[in-house]
Amino acid sequence: MIGLSTVAEVRAAEDVLLAATREGALMQRAATGLATVCLRLLGRAHGTRATLLVGGGNNGGDALFAGAHLAARGARVTAVLLDPARAHPAGLAALRRAGGRVAGPDGDDGLDRADLVLDGIVGIGGRGGLRPEAARLAQRAATGPGLTVAVDVPSGVDADTGAVGGAAFPALHTVTFGAVKPGLVVGEGRGYAGTVHLVDIGLGPHLAPARAHQLTDADVAVHLEPPGPGDDKYSRGVVGVVAGSAAYPGAGVLCTGAALRTRPGLVRHAGPAGDAVRTAWPEVIVTDGGPGEAGRVQAWVVGPGAGTDDAARRVLAEVLATDLPVVVDADALTLAAREPALVRGRGAPTVLTPHDREFARFGEPPGADRIGSARRLAADLGAVVLLKGDATVVAGPDGTAFVNATGTSDLATAGSGDVLSGILGSLLATGAPAAEAAAAAAHLHGRAGQVAAAAGPIVAGDLVRRLPETVGRVRGTGLPDSEA
Ligand SMILES: NC(=O)C1=CN([C@@H]2O[C@H](COP(=O)(O)OP(=O)(O)OC[C@H]3O[C@@H](n4cnc5c(N)ncnc54)[C@H](O)[C@@H]3O)[C@@H](O)[C@H]2O)[C@@H](O)CC1
Ligand SMILES: Nc1ncnc2c1ncn2[C@@H]1O[C@H](COP(=O)(O)OP(=O)(O)O)[C@@H](O)[C@H]1O
Ligand SMILES: [K+]
């Protein structure tokens, strides 16, 4: 698991480490790591041109020292000082010693011919969007030829939430220090951070345990172990699906198919889409009656394509009245938003899987702080909330949170959510903790999207078809992180 640490957590750890190290040592570690990543990205230093955008804090100091490393290796480095009176003095001296030039914001910044632009305007000390002068330079960097690299955090991005209040630096890469900050991987900030590189500056032992995480393939593989010699079709959990209707039989087919293809023990289906499910998946045990007639299961998925009429409401209430884990998806979310009492106070885990519009039905839209919003709704309802998006967020009622690291925008296709809820039901039926099962499901769904989209445009059925291969890859050596 990759911990996501807030600014307060990073500052607290830094304070302890700063007191235990000689002055400037941490910044040297940060700047050396930053220069190393830049050299790797550029392929060489000699003959390249770099422009440093330097603010008045330590973030600018990191950029200046890294610029000095590059200049010492033959790069032509220009530092643009946004606040010349407060530019880090030792960093400035180091850059000058190494042969770097210094310009004011109106001087020749070299942005139109730079190979590399380092954003050292603000880091974790930043508040709000960029001021006009910095915004103008960030805009020129975005349209110029240089590879844009943010130091610690893209300036203008809120490191804790990913909120972008105005202009921000659009980085292709972000080199972050000590710990990955949530704002680099979630919300709007994710789009500004690009590929995130973590540089170890020795903070690890001093960091408080993170309250938000990203899962890796290895974390998810634990939930996808093949059956052992002692297992039978019942032993690792049976999933029950109430999805699909006469109008939307496909939702039942996709949801049961995804559950089967994730963990093919036993899947039961109840409801009016039975004929379509039987035809598509003869392996599924189907009843045309209600959930009570389906036989024993260890977790339910309810809602995809199921409608919002009185009959659908009765089925939802019946499933939620059980002492089993329940995934509440799609139409069932609309019903639960009308009647939150159906969910509140359940003894067994409930997982709600809204996209933004469904989320808004519970009160207000998620807004710019997606982790915070998901946590608030989870605490309010006593349920796990999986808030879908390009980086899906999962929050538990106790504040535990996950941000998904896999996926592709090809997943924005009809029925993709039905596949996710089937995967999730299958994992929940094993007895896995609900928030982690939800995060693992989002991870596997995202990987299936990547695997399927490698061959071209995808429809939701492709995700189901490619699930066995995806499970195999997640269990095995996994996909490289760069494909995340
Ligand atoms: N504390 C430490 O020991 C270490 C800090 N490091 C670096 O230091 C950074 C934090 O440094 P600071 O605490 O000095 O803060 P920053 O350098 O992030 O920003 C503070 C400065 O930015 C100004 N500012 C705030 N918001 C702004 C905005 N929207 N537009 C323009 N200017 C704005 C503030 O007035 C202040 O001058 C980290 O992000 C990291 O890059 C690293 O060198 C590692 C070690
Ligand atoms: N731009 C995107 N990038 C990555 N994943 C996306 C994107 N858009 C949607 N998704 C994912 O695709 C799925 C869509 O689910 P949903 O909106 O419920 O679709 P449907 O109701 O058609 O089944 C979610 O898992 C969501 O996270
Ligand atoms: K920055």
UniProtKB/TrEMBL annotation:
Keywords tagged on the record: ATP-binding, Isomerase, Kinase, Lyase, Metal-binding, Multifunctional enzyme, NAD, NADP, Nucleotide-binding, Potassium, Transferase
MF terms (GO), sorted A to Z: ADP-dependent NAD(P)H-hydrate dehydratase activity; ATP binding; kinase activity; metal ion binding; NAD(P)HX epimerase activity
Domain YjeF N-terminal residues, every copy: 5-209
Domain of life: Bacteria
PANTHER family attached to this UniProt entry: ATP-DEPENDENT (S)-NAD(P)H-HYDRATE DEHYDRATASE (PTHR12592:SF0), ATP-DEPENDENT (S)-NAD(P)H-HYDRATE DEHYDRATASE FAMILY MEMBER (PTHR12592)
Function: Bifunctional enzyme that catalyzes the epimerization of the S- and R-forms of NAD(P)HX and the dehydration of the S-form of NAD(P)HX at the expense of ADP, which is converted to AMP. This allows the repair of both epimers of NAD(P)HX, a damaged form of NAD(P)H that is a result of enzymatic or heat-dependent hydration. Catalyzes the epimerization of the S- and R-forms of NAD(P)HX, a damaged form of NAD(P)H that is a result of enzymatic or heat-dependent hydration. This is a prerequisite for the S-specific NAD(P)H-hydrate dehydratase to allow the repair of both epimers of NAD(P)HX.
Protein name as catalogued: Bifunctional NAD(P)H-hydrate repair enzyme
Organism: Geodermatophilus saharensis
Phylogenetic classification of the source organism: Bacteria, Bacillati, Actinomycetota, Actinomycetes, Geodermatophilales
